[in-house]
Structures are given as C-alpha cells and as structure tokens.
Automatic annotation (TrEMBL):
Record lineage: Eukaryota, Viridiplantae, Streptophyta, Embryophyta, Tracheophyta
Alphabetized InterPro entries for the sequence: HMA_dom, HMA_dom_sf
GO molecular function, one term: metal ion binding
Source organism per UniProt: Trifolium subterraneum
Protein name per Swiss-Prot or TrEMBL: HMA domain-containing protein
GO cellular component, one term: membrane
Amino acid sequence: MGALDHISDLFDCSGGSSKHKHRKQLQTVEVKVKMDCEGCERKVRRAVEGMKGVDQVDIERKAHKVTVVGYVEPNKVVARIAHRTGKRAEIWPYVPYDVVAHPYAQGTYDKKAPSGYVRNTYDDNQYSGSHLARASSTEVRYTTAFSDENPAACSVM
C-alpha cells in the first residue's frame, strides 16, 4: 500500500463504507422457545421477521422450535425473541439420537426433548466413554454374584 493510498483512505468521504467491512454469512439458526398457542407462535414470528437480514422463518409449535434463515447472528436472534416476546429463548440444544454415541447416558438423555432427539453434548472426547457414569462397587458385586463367568456364583435353580 503506497503513501497515496494511505492518504486517500484517511480522507475518504464515501459515507463510512469500508472495503474492510466484515459481511455476515447466510446462516440457519435454530432456537428453542416454548409456544402453547397460535398467539404465541404469531408473536414469535413477528418478532423475528422484523429483524434485518432475515429471509425465512419456520416455526414448529409442538416441538417448540423456531428456524431462522438469513444473514443474522444467532445470539442476536435469541436476544430479540427474549426481549420482544418476554419468553425464555435458547439455541436449539437437541440433536437426533442416532448422531450421539450413547444417547441414554447421563447428561445426554432429556425427558423434555422432542421424540427422536436427545440433548447435544458439546464434548470433544465424546466417543471415549469418559462422560458415562461408572458402576459403584456394590453394583458390581451384585451383578457378578449371579454371573455365569463367576465360578463361585450362586446357582439358584
């Protein structure tokens, strides 16, 4: 960059637009919002459709899921829904159960999740089994007492 380019950038009067400005990318943002009726659904839809950069809004009321497609930031979508509707909103925390290695492990299984979904575990070491609950010594003792591999096992016929 030469000296003339530097000076012309300093005295640029083009209205504040810069060639170094960061553009937002097209994203799909999924948000969990509790909606009970059509009025709740309408209120959430109006809150999100009014945002700048939103292209499409899909709402699944029974799953309590709002999908927003557009040039938006996920945190701003969540904040907008929470502020405009007064409802608690969070980024969609669920994934299909067949994506997770151990879907019924502690911390992953959630009773409130829609059918076919479990809570997403943001663990990088997901497949090592480190997040699974370990059996206590009393549980091990009782399960091995009636095992076929234990030669001193109780045989009840």
